[in-house]
Amino acid sequence: MQQPIIEIKNANIYQGDSLVLKEVNLTIREGEFVYLVGRTGTGKSSLLKTLYGDLLLTEGEAVVAEYQLKNMHWKQVPYLRRKLGVVFQDFRLLTDRNVANNLRFVLKATGWTDKKLIDDKVTQVLEQVGLQHKANKMPYEMSGGEQQRVDIARALLNSPKLILADEPTGNLDPVTTDEIMNLLLSIAKESNAAIVMATHDYAVVKKYPARLIKTEGGRVVDNATIDNL
């Protein structure tokens, strides 16, 4: 059986002083593809922020990528994030530099120094997402789907065992959504990375069925079904 990459036990998740999710118990293993669904305001974003260290966990236990989250010191957060890949809905690419330099910037910021190793890694992740021929393009010269692929390439730079994807198809047309979904599913299979994808697009959930986690009524419901969405 694959090793857990996320293991949460009896955790209470807060936004400020407000309890958002209570008694969260959740295990996600390497190589799993998991949807995170739920109405706006039910705690999806709070759960994701807890997983990547943006919200401090003070009650319960959680281990993500071998890091203990409970009362994690802020100095540890960058090291946790180097073990993760995060894919955003709005891409968040640097608009003043080309694709390759967007990726080089991240590698240098996370401690890479060898120019050849940096260039080799940039080439590798662009090949993974099918954009090796777009390395010198500026973000504004690319379609939304291409920019999302760059965002995914950026998430792959440090060979993460966990990718958190926040509405990665939210701004894309149906054809491009299919391309991105097939890419994410292939990454989970080939790289053995767990992927947690938050989405409001239930058409995607139905077309590409996978384990479903739902935030509802202050709880996390594991193994939810399409019927109760």
UniProtKB/TrEMBL annotation:
> Which part of the chain is the ABC transporter domain?
6-229
Q: Does the keyword Nucleotide-binding apply?
A: yes
| Stored Pfam families | ABC_tran
**What GO molecular function terms would the record report?**
ATP binding
- Has the keyword Nucleotide-binding been applied to this entry? yes
Keywords in UniProt for this one? ATP-binding, Nucleotide-binding
Superkingdom field: Bacteria
The protein here is known as ATP-binding cassette domain-containing protein
